[in-house]
Write a structure and sequence with these properties.
By secondary structure, the chain is α+β, with helices and mostly antiparallel strands. It folds into two domains: about 70 residues, Type Iii Antifreeze Protein Isoform Hplc 12 (Alpha-Beta Complex); about 160 residues, no CATH class. It has seven helices and 14 strands. The longest helix has 23 residues.
């Protein structure tokens, strides 16, 4: 049986087809396209304008899918992640300005409230937008006394009511000496710092980029990494975060209901706040107890 010879036309057709496929692939990968890149180092929170970016021709295969390709797309956008010179401006590193974004996230009966935090009270900068936190409030006796102290009391509260009587010598009516009040033992509540969960399920709306925890490699030496390290160190002194707080009254202790927004504002000004990051499934509390450090100290020393 004789072997059939392959037609040279078939080989030529396959070669031409493969050539067209290679040209199409290279054209899609190497073909220059324009994309927006940072013209200089840009810090998180920078409101982008045309002077801070530039259009650069780059091979299509090296441009991210979400890269911005027109300056018109920058309107009202700000950076949520820092950019080095030449870095792409992508939708994943952009956010709306705080003024236009936060009000739209608030439900009826809720307000945005900013509170002061430190690395210790702010979960070491691990909190992010969209998470929920439990707020623990703390008060000390000296803070309460300073907040409610007065310079002087009304005279009628300081002096006892005088009693009148007749002088045995002249018969003139003179004020009698007020009787000395008898001492009565009255139990006083223990004056000690108090801590209690104030409210749970509070949504985080905004965390400044400079306060966020950033893990840096031990051999970080680039300008961008050193810039991130300096921002992380600057947060040691504290920052503020914005919370979504309901205004409907909640019962703090039996018979005492307060507005959560008013409560958090008062604790932020006169007391202390600590944030506790809640699990993604939420936090359920069967009972909330107030911790009195003085009573705790006495209890721990009863057996000594």
């Amino acid at each position: 049986m004789e072997n059939k010879k392959r037609s040279p036309i078939t080989v030529i057709v396959f070669a031409v087809l493969i050539g067209f496929l290679v040209i199409a692939l290279l054209n899609g990968t190497v073909r220059p396209t324009q994309a927006l890149v940072a013209k200089e180092s840009l810090a998180p929170g920078t409101l982008l304008i045309a002077d801070l970016v530039e259009l650069r021709s780059i091979p299509a295969g090296g441009v991210p899918n979400d890269a911005l390709r027109s300056i018109d797309e920058l309107a009202g956008k700000m950076l949520t992640v820092g950019r080095a010179p030449g870095d792409f401006i992508t939708t994943s590193v952009l956010g709306e300005t705080a003024a236009s974004g936060i009000p739209s996230q608030l439900e009826p009966g809720h307000v945005a409230l900013a509170v002061r935090v430190t690395l210790a009270s702010g979960v070491a900068g691990l909190i992010r937008e969209g998470q929920t936190v439990t707020i623990l409030g703390m008060l000390t006796p000296d803070v309460v006394q300073n907040a409610f102290s007065t310079n002087e009391l009304p005279v009628n509260l300081l002096l006892p009511t005088p009693m009148q009587g007749a002088s045995p010598v002249t018969g003139a009516v003179i004020p009698a000496v007020a009787p000395t009040p008898s001492a009565t033992a009255t139990p006083q509540p223990l004056q000690a710092p108090l801590a209690r969960i104030a409210i749970t399920g509070v949504k985080v709306l905004l965390v400044p980029q400079t306060f966020r925890y950033q893990e840096l490699p031990p051999d970080a030496d680039s300008n961008e990494q050193m810039f991130a390290s300096s921002m992380s160190n600057s947060s040691q002194s504290g920052s503020v975060i914005v919370l979504d707080v309901p205004t409907a009254p909640v019962e703090i202790v039996p018979g005492l209901s307060v507005n959560p927004a008013t409560l958090l504002a008062a604790l932020d000004e006169y007391g202390k706040l600590h944030l506790a990051l809640e699990p993604s499934t939420g936090l359920e509390l069967s009972e909330v107890l107030t911790l009195n450090l003085g009573e705790l100290y006495e209890s721990l020393n009863e057996d000594k």
